[in-house]
Write a structure and sequence with these properties.
By secondary structure, the chain is of the alpha/beta class. The chain contains ten helices and 16 strands. Helix 1 (about 15-25) crosses helix 8, helix 2 crosses helix 3 and helix 3 crosses helix 4. The mean pLDDT is about 90.
Length: about 290
């Protein structure tokens, strides 16, 4: 039987990834001690792999497909096929940034000032290449954790760390000196698997439904009834992917309107719709938008 080997990132992206697959139509379940989740699809086998290692396991064919950060693909310099970009994290859909930070009182003002200095980071290979490409000689060492504290305590001159808002760095009295790259989750495939006819069809199925699941995050559907004489004013209030769906009701003077909106806009939008005569407003959740 044909089988697609899928890597699920263990760690901060784990719960969001499992939820994303659930919304896409796959139920993934596992115990805390298991590294081999079950999935309700006999054509897929799941493995829990740390995001930092995912790309090399996909590259060497241990896995056919996996989700990991763009940062870890660049760190391992893996030769894989990027099937799809997904911008999501443990807390939000913002892209994370890898930044170079120094102490607030540091005399280092630019990258060139780091010549001969020591930098601590988890992203050793990428950081080393980044400075080599700019002709700046630095000593890059691997950090096992608590990276920010090392520059605060004076153990290193700078750190390269991942952040979304920079608030943790500022709380530790660090100053962001330079952005090295933006990163987000990517769905990646082994090159041989991508060129295999059956596996490619299965990968494209997974990719399509994940995209629909991802696009539905943060959105809801709205249904309502509107008098025809008020329809124009209601439509002006309603954002939509293309245009709201409007259909006539049994009563000739009423229309049914259906659309998709950002979840965060609903609390302001519904009172405005009521003001222009919308009635029977229903908000409903979405699993996929394609």
């Amino acid at each position: 039987m044909n089988l697609l080997k899928l890597g699920i990132p263990k760690g901060s992206l784990e719960a969001n990834t499992v939820e994303l697959f659930r919304r896409a139509g796959w139920k993934i379940s596992y115990s805390e001690r298991s590294y081999f989740p079950s999935v309700d699809d006999e054509e897929i086998a799941c493995y829990l792999i740390r995001a930092q290692e995912m790309a090399r396991y996909v590259e060497d064919g241990t896995l056919d497909l996996g989700l990991t950060g763009k940062d870890w693909i660049l760190e391992t310099n893996a030769d894989v096929t990027v099937v799809q970009d997904l911008v999501y994290s443990k807390a939000s859909r913002r892209q994370a940034r890898w930044v170079l930070a120094v102490r607030e009182d540091s005399q280092i003002k630019n990258l060139e000032d780091l010549e001969g200095k020591r930098i601590s980071t988890e992203l050793v290979n990428f950081t080393t290449r980044y400075f080599q490409e700019r002709g700046i000689e630095v000593d890059v060492e691997f950090s096992w954790g608590a990276t920010e504290a090392k520059v605060v305590e004076g153990l290193v001159d700078a750190v390269v760390e991942v952040t979304e808002t920079g608030s943790t760095l500022r709380a530790n009295k660090l100053r962001i000196l330079h952005d090295l790259m933006k990163t987000n989750t990517q769905l990646i495939a082994n090159n041989d698997a991508w060129n295999d006819a059956w596996k490619r069809r299965k990968i494209e199925q997974v990719s399509l439904l994940l995209r629909g699941s991802f696009m539905a995050m943060g959105k809801v559907g709205l249904k309502m009834n509107v008098l025809k004489e008020n329809l124009g004013r209601a439509i002006l209030l309603l954002p939509s992917i293309t245009a709201p769906t409007v259909s006539e009701l049994f009563k000739d003077d009423w229309c049914a309107v259906d659309t998709i909106v950002d979840k965060d806009s609903v609390r302001e939008l519904i009172p405005l719709l009521r003001e222009v005569g919308a009635e029977g407003i229903i908000e409903y959740p979405l699993n996929k938008v394609l």
